[in-house]
Structure formats: structure tokens, C-alpha cells
Amino acid sequence: MKITAIREKTVSLASGLRNAGIAYDAMTASAVVVEADGGALRGLGFDSVGRYGHGALLRERFVPRLRDAAPGALLDGDGLIDPAAAWRAMMANEKPGGHGERAGAVGVLDMALWDLRARQRGEPAWRTIAGYFGCEGAPTVAVYGTGGHYGADAADTGPLCASLAEARGRGFRTFKIKIGGAPLETDLARVEAALEIAGPGALALDTNGVWDPETAAGWLAALADYDLAWIEEPVSPLDYAGLADIAGRFPVPIGTGENLFSFDDARNLQRHGGLRPDRDLLQFDISLSYGLPEYVRMVDCFTAKGWSPRRFAPHAGHVLALHTVAALGLGMAEVALDAALPIGGLPGGAVVEDGRVTLPDAPGFGIEEMPALHACFAGLLA
Ligand SMILES: [Mg+2]
Q1: Can you name the CATH fold of 3-122?
Q2: Fewest beta carbons less than 10 Å away: which of 24, 34, 77, 103?
Q3: Domains of the chain by residue range
């Protein structure tokens, strides 16, 4: 097997959504196709959401390194594409530290390589990933539904409640909404309305890292009487001391990590973030964190200190995250409730039953079975 073409393009993810930190009116992502043996085989990769496309990095550094590698250097002993070997080729001549946007460029290519390997083996990606990393894996995973972004009128809880009620009817049992982007009184009304539908302990609140510790403490005090699943990114993603301060003062579970993109950053979080293995959630984004070879190191960094793999819930309703939760036996996968979004919905008509999803058997990640996502590859699949 030989890689014969790698194509990429930037796709618009523009929408009217916003959270406490950013609006999505100019959001983009990269779609990549790695083609082998003249098109007889291919793998598809798609960025996670929130960090824009990686076109320049792909074109100038990481695609050329893959394309120019000696063919045998990227294969395992069975002639299958070896994503870890490809990862080493991509990371040649990259200095340590300062991870930044390159982590997402490598990650989107890594996803395509896992898709390619799974198709070579004729099996779903979760099974390929599990086998590669020596895990048992299982196709049924717990999921939670994410929505509750701010629309045109933050004080109008009607659209929020309609969306959560519809999702509950579809089988979701845990939900996450955005807060921190409206005045406290407005957000408290949104939380109360959402809790009515989600039920006690089944609603998470995502603040998107916009608060300093003092502001976070004020809001968490105001939220202290609500039975919440978790509070997400209550302080800036890199403020480990601030996070430790909050974790030491409030019992509510904390979810964080989606804006840390490397083993180095994960280890700093483990060492200095004050997180509690009995309740907190680790949400590193696989695609934005150099892909699976680095993500597995990040998981190992915590499990080596006594954390359960069940405390991991990778960021974004991304099909890579869904398969990885199944493969590595992680705790939960996120699903964007709006199936019209490119990374929304579930693959292959999979349905949610009492908060759990069973992945279909289609080879690879099943992107062909996700119409909104597959449409992003138009023009790349010649
Ligand atoms: Mg978040």
C-alpha cells in the first residue's frame, strides 16, 4: 500500500450560534482525504470544532512530510498503514513545547489515517483503535447531548426548552448548555428551565473559560443550590492555580481540558489543576491534540495517577471521539444535538437508547453515513 494523494480543503462552519467566549459566524474547519494505491483505498479526516481550519500548516509542513516519506516507513508488518509511524514522520523536525495550532493539523491527518487503516481491515474504526492499543473496546457507549447555545434573545427560554425536550424524547438522558454569556439572572432562568426538562443531576453548564477565579466563585455560589452534572471550564483553560482554587472551594464536578492540546499540558493539569478523580471530567479534544497517539499518552498520564478511564469525556460531538470512547472504554461521548451541523448527529442512523448509543458496523468512522459531514468532503473524493 502506498499513499498516492492527500487532498485538503477549508470548510465553512459558519452559524448564528455563540457561547460565552466566541461567535461562530466565521468558523471554519479542515477536511482531508488520504488516498492510497491510486484511489483504491482512502481515509477521511475532519477537524474538531472551535479552532478554525489548518490549511496552511497542512500544505506547508504536514502533508509534504507524509507524502514524501518512504512508503515502507508508514506501514506495519502486515502492510497496513501504521498511524503511529505516520505520526513520527509528520512530527520530524518539530521542536518540543509551544504546541498551538500544529496539534490540530496533525490531528486531522491522524484521523484520516485511522479511517484508512480501519477500511483496510474492513471493520469499524473503534475496533481498529481498540486492537491497536491493546484494549477490548465495545460498540455501545454512553453519550450526552450538547446544545443550548445563545440565540438571538438569550432571555427567551423557549427554543432552549424545545431543543432539550426533543432530545429527551430521542433518548438522551444527560445534557449540556452554555452559560456565562448573559447576565446572571438571565442565565439562572435558563438553568432552571433546562433543569425542569433534564432532571436532577443531568444538566451540565459550559462557561467556555471566560471567567477569572473571582468571577467564577461568584457564579458558582449563585449556582450552589442546583443539582448539576458538572460545570465546564469555569476559569481560563491554562489557569491551573485558579482551577485548583475553585475545585477546592466548590463540590460541584468540574469538566475541563478541551483547550489543552498536548501531553505536556495534560500533565500540567494533572499536577497543578487540583482536579478530583472521584468526580471531575477530562475533556481533551482528540483531533485538536495531535490525534490518537498523543491522546492515549494524555489518558495514560492520568490513569497512572489512579484516575479511571471513565472520567474521560472527549470534547465535541465528533465521530472520532465517539469511536475512541468505544475503543478505549472511556466514560462518555458528546453529541451535538443539532444534526444539521457538520459534526452533529450520529453515524449510520444510530439511535440513542436511554442515554447510550451502539455504533454501526460500517468500516472506518462511517462518515459516508453522516450526510452533513460527508457533504464537507465534496470535491475531495475524485
Ligand atoms: Mg466546552
Answers
A1: Enolase-like; domain 1 (3.30.390)
A2: 77
A3: 3-122, 140-377
Which H/E stretch holds residue 12?
strand 3-12
Distance 157 CA to ligand 1 centre (A): 20
Distance from Cα 362 to the centre of ligand 1, integer Å: 29
Q: Specify whether 2 is catalytic.
A: no
**Tell me, what DSSP letter sits at residue 80?**
-
Q: Which of 9, 54, 99, 178 is catalytic?
A: 178
Query: Does the annotation count 374 as an active-site position?
Result: no
The answer to whether the 3-122 and 140-377 domains have the same CATH topology is no
For helices 263-272 and 292-303, the axis angle rounded to 10 degrees is 20
| pLDDT value of residue 146 | 95
The rounded distance, in Å, linking the Cα atoms of 162 and 67 is 48
CATH topology of domain 140-377: TIM Barrel (3.20.20)
Q: Give me the phi and psi of 357, to 5 degrees please.
A: -130, 140
Sign of CA dihedral 206, 210, 212, 218: negative
Q: Are 50 and 27 in contact (CB under 8 A)?
A: yes
Of 51, 43, 59, nearest to 22 (Cα)? 51
d(CA 151, CA 161): 13
Cα 261 to ligand 1 centre (Å): 14
CA 380 to CA 58: how far, in whole Å? Answer: 15
Q: Which residues of the chain have pLDDT under 70?
A: none
Render pLDDT for 24-51 as a digit per residue (tens, 0 to 9). 889 999 999 999 999 999 999 999 999 9
pTM over 0.85: yes
Ligand 1: centre distance to CA 337 (Å): 14
- 105 alpha carbon – ligand 1 mean position (Å): 20
